[in-house]
Specification:
Layout (H helix, E strand, L loop, with lengths): L15 H17 L1 H7 L4 H9 L18 H14 L1 H6 L1 H11 L5 H11 L4 E4 L14 E5 L2 E8 L10 E8 L3 E8 L5 E4 L14 E9 L4 E2 L8 H30 L16 H33 L6 H32 L16 H11 L4 H14 L33
Parallel strand pairs: 1-4, 2-4
Antiparallel strand pairs: 2-3, 3-7, 4-5, 5-8, 6-7
GO molecular function: 3-methylbutanoyl-CoA dehydrogenase activity; flavin adenine dinucleotide binding; monooxygenase activity
Keywords: Monooxygenase, Oxidoreductase
Protein name: Monooxygenase
Length: 427
């Protein structure tokens, strides 16, 4: 019957296949060049352009606003497929989709309409949020200040994922005494310097390096207060990572099956004359496929919780809204601890089914583990497990946002300052 791409189950909705078929030719095109880009450090400008041209960045917008009206499970299903093609591309768009959620949750008004138009026209948003160095936890050195008749932005950021491909940059900054805001500036604005100096061993094409701002002008209407953060925004951001991991595991499963099917060399102490007939080798391939299946199923299940949190925004029941967001945060944390391990195990195990030739740099099979390890290092699993355990044992509200830094030890939720609350499901 030939080689199968894998059995991953049906999509998250009746509409999913029709939605996905719009993008699968582009995903395939991206997949075909993935190893070449990896080996030659060819940045993703062309691939991002292809996705922009087919409207991928607009899929969460309603049809009335120029999008496709995709639900969150549908979005994450598509991100799994894109990540199977090239996980760098998904991560490069992570902040864009997070910003779209922020806009979708704004109240009706001129600001919301302006950004919906920009997104519908294909404009892409990157980020400059994180700083490295001597900052204390919760502090941001980048400043937004008044200079004569213009707001000006000054600072240096790192982990600026996707910004090198973006039209706009979301920048976290301190305004005034301690007020932290988001300033959105054009990537081509005066004083912006985007440096491709990301030197991690994985996700090498995401542009996750330095962005500098020197007296960069900011329009007052494009300054967002902390209150505009989406409550489920952290869960959403983690879900993009999880969808990326699930896609990586599928790609590894696909490639190991193809490599075993083509392999002719074997060992004197093997269980069969061909690798494709060796039960021990087939067992490895089957386990990797099963791990990839489990990772994808968990991601799509967790996506349902984030969809409930999104829909809860229309509820007038504050207790239900809080519960929906807490449940989403905990479900995603639970998913993260398992999907990460499934993917790391699967991407390492593929070499057990292949010979030493599989380690040839030209094959690029090592990129799967490197990329997965890089993504799973963003938010330590040990903290997620503790948070889940604290919720399960004590009903402690999980933190909805956090920051990195030195010195100041704080468990406070960066959106509300409070997470030590015993929670019960709404009646």
């Amino acid at each position: 019957m030939g080689i199968h791409e894998g059995v991953w189950g049906i999509g998250p909705s009746d509409n999913y296949t029709k939605l996905a078929e719009r993008f699968r030719p582009t995903f395939l095109r991206i997949r075909e060049g993935a190893v070449h880009r990896e080996l030659n450090r060819k940045l993703l400008h062309e691939e991002i352009h292809w996705l922009r041209a087919c409207g991928f960045g607009t899929i969460r917008l309603s049809q009335e606003d120029g999008g496709l009206g995709a639900t969150l499970p549908e979005l994450f299903g598509l991100l799994i497929e894109l990540s199977e093609a090239d996980s760098n591309v998904t991560q490069a768009l992570r902040i864009h989709f997070g910003f779209v959620e922020r806009i979708l949750n704004l109240p009706d008004g001129e600001r919301r309409e302006r950004w919906l138009r920009r997104i519908a026209e294909g404009e892409i948003v990157g980020n400059a949020l994180t700083e490295i160095g001597e900052n204390k936890v919760g502090s941001i050195a980048t400043t937004l200040s008044q200079a004569e008749d213009q707001l000006r932005l000054n600072g240096i950021k790192f982990y600026s994922t996707g910004t090198i491909y973006a039209d706009w940059i979301v920048v976290s900054a301190t305004a005034g005494e301690d007020d932290i805001v988001s300033a959105i500036v054009p990537a081509a604005a005066e004083g912006v310097d985007i440096v491709d100096d990301w030197a991690g061993f994985g996700q090498t094409l995401t542009g996750s390096g330095t962005t500098k701002f020197v007296n960069t002008p900011v329009e007052r209407q494009d300054v967002f207060a902390r209150e505009t953060y989406t409550k489920y925004g952290t869960a959403f951001a983690q879900m993009v990572h999880l969808a990326t991991l699930a896609g990586i595991s599928r790609a590894a499963a696909r490639d190991v099956a193809a490599a075993v099917a083509e392999r002719r060399r074997t060992y004197s102490h093997a269980s069969a004359d061909r690798a494709g007939e060796d039960p021990q080798v087939l067992q490895v391939v089957g386990r990797v496929h099963s791990q990839a299946y489990a990772a994808g199923a968990i991601v799509l299940k967790a996506a349902e919780a984030v969809q409930r949190a999104y829909e809860a925004k229309t509820s007038e029941d504050a207790e239900y809204v809080e519960w929906a967001n807490v449940e989403a945060e905990v479900e995603v944390a639970q998913a993260q601890t398992i999907v990460a391990r499934l993917t790391l195990e699967a991407t390492a195990a593929i070499f057990d089914a292949l010979g030493a030739s599989a380690t040839a740099r030209s094959k690029g099979l090592d990129r799967y583990w490197r990329n997965a390890r890089t993504i799973t290092s963003h938010n330590p699993l040990i903290y997620k497990e503790r948070i889940v355990g604290d919720y399960a044992v004590n009903g402690t509200r999980p933190p909805f946002a956090w920051q990195t830094g030195i010195d100041a030890r704080s468990h406070a939720d960066q959106t509300t300052g409070d997470n030590d609350v015993r929670l019960k499901p709404p009646s």
